[in-house]
Amino acid sequence: MTILEDLQWRGLYADCTDLAALTKRLSEGPLTLYCGFDPTADSLHVGNLVPLLALRRFQLAGHHPIALAGGATGMIGDPSGKSSERNLQTPEQVGHNIKAIKEQLSRFLDFNAATNPARLVDNSTWTAPVTFLEFLRDVGKHFSVNVMIAKDSVRSRLESARNDGEDGISYTEFSYMLLQAHDFLHLRNAANCELQIGATDQWGNITAGTDLIRKKNSGRSAWGLVFPLLTKADGTKYGKSASGAVWLDRNKTSPKLFYEFFLNSADTDVIRLLKVLTFLSREEINVLQNESIINPSARSAQKALAKHLTSLVHGADEAEKAAISSEITFGKMPISSQTEPTLRQIASTIPQILFDLNQPVSPENRIPINKSLTEVVTLSGICPSKGQAKQLIISGGLYVNDERQTDPNLKVTESMLLYDQFLFLRKGTSANAVFTTHSPYSIPLDSQLSKGT
After folding, report:
1. 73 contacts 97 by C-beta, under 8 angstroms
2. Which residues contact 400 (CB under 8 A, 6 or more apart)?
C-alpha cells in the first residue's frame, strides 16, 4: 500500500493541488515535505496530532519530513478557522512557546534516522532579515488582492464581520498567507521541499505557496496536500474536554486525563480515530471494530486508542500507569493494593481536600478524622446536605477506599488512611473525591467540589 493509499483508507485525504502528478512523483522515490506549527501556546494539543502524525507517516514511508516552528508567523497569527483577531504575542512569549513545542515535536519525529532524519526549522531565521520593501517587491507583487480575498480563510472572516457588524480582518492577518507562501518558497529553494501538508483550513495558505513557487521558479514542482479537520460524528471540533483543550504537555493535561479523554470516545467516533490517530494496521483496526460490534461494553477499541496515543505522547510506562489508574478510579481494580505513586497520580485527577493531621479541626483544616461518614461525605461535596449523604450511605452507594460502607454514623479513623495520607470516597462507579495530607496537584475545594466528577 502506498502512502497516499494509506492516507485515503484512514480518511486522511481531503484534497491535493494535483493528485495525479503527486502520485507519480511519490512513485519515483522519496521527497521532502513540511508542515508548520505556530507557537500560539507553550504546548501542542490533540488537534495538532493529525498533521504531526502525518509527517511521521511520510517519514516511515521513507520520505524526508520538516517540522516548521513558526517563530515569524506566530508573531502574526493565522486567521484560518478563526472568527476574530488573535491577540498578538510578545517576542518573549513566542520564544518561550517555540522552545516548549520543539521538545514536543521531537517525540514524534526521528531526528536521528540513518537515511531520512527529520529536520526542525524556525521561519524567523529567514523571515527576520527580509526588509518590508524587499518582501513587497519579491513576494507581494505576485499576489492579486482579488485572489487573496477569495481565499476561504479571508472570505469567511469578511462575511462573519458583515453579519456581526465587526471590523473584519486586519492587514496584519490578511498578510499571513504571504508569509506562509514565502516559507514554502524558501524551503523549496533551500531544502528541495516539494510538498506542504496541513488540514483543510490551510488550503488557501498552502495554494498561495504553490502559486508563488510556480511564478518565481518556473518549471519547479510543488504540491499541497490537505486532510480533513478532526471532528466528532456530530461535526463539532475534536480535542476539547469539559475543561478546555486537551494538551500534549503533561503539566496541562495529565497522562491519566489524556488517557481517559480517549477512553471516553463515542462508539460512533472510535474506529475513525483509530485510523486517523494511530499507526495500527488495517487488520488490527478491523479486529477491534469486530470486537466493538460483538461486545461494545468491553470498549476494547477505546482502550486500544487511549493506550496507543498515551504511549505515543507520554511513553509506554505512563500509558500503563494511566490505564491502571483509570481502572482503579472507576472501581474495576482494588485501590488499597496500589503503590503510593499510583495513588498520588489518581489523587491528582479528582477533587482533593487537603488536611493536616498535626493541626486541630477547623473550617480551614478540613480533617476527616473522628468525623462521622455523614459529615465526611458532606464535607467532600459529594452530597450537598447531611440528609442526602446519610441516604447515600444507608442505600449502599458509598465506598471508602475499596469498602462499601452502610453505617452513616461510622467514625473515620487514621487506620483507614492509605499510606497514612489518602482517603478515597467513591459514589457509584467512579472515585469522586479524596482527602489527602499532601499533594502538589491540589484542586481548590470551592471551585471544584461543587462541580462533581
Report:
1. no
2. 373, 412, 416, 423, 424, 425, 426
User: Which residue has 502528478 as its cell numbers?
Assistant: 21
pLDDT one-digit tens code per residue, 48-97: 999 999 999 999 999 999 999 988 888 887 776 554 555 677 888 888 88
C-alpha cell at 436: 489527602
Q: 292: Cβ–Cβ under 8 A, 6 or more apart, which residues?
A: 267, 270, 271, 299, 300, 301
Q: Each residue of 372-409: pLDDT tens digit?
A: 999 999 988 889 899 999 999 999 999 999 889 999 99
**Residue 244 grid coordinates:** 478546555
For the record, the C-alpha cell of 334 comes out as 482494588
- Comparing 83-97, 219-233, 239-253, the range with the smallest average pLDDT is 83-97
What is the C-alpha to C-alpha distance for residues 243 and 246, in angstroms, rounded to an integer? 9
313's grid cell: 505522547
Q: In whole angstroms, give the CA distance from residue 313 to residue 241.
A: 17
Listed residue (156, 155, 217) closest to 181, CA to CA: 217
72-92 per-residue burial string, b: 16 or more CB within 10 A, e: under 16: bbbbbbbbbbbeebbeebeee
8 A C-beta contact, residue 76 and residue 179: yes
In angstroms, the first-to-last Cα distance of the chain is 45
Integer angstrom CA distances of residue 29 from 4, 22, 331, 334, 341: 13, 11, 53, 54, 49
Contact 196, 35 (CB under 8 A): yes
Beta bridge partners of 240: 245
What pLDDT score was predicted for residue 164? 59
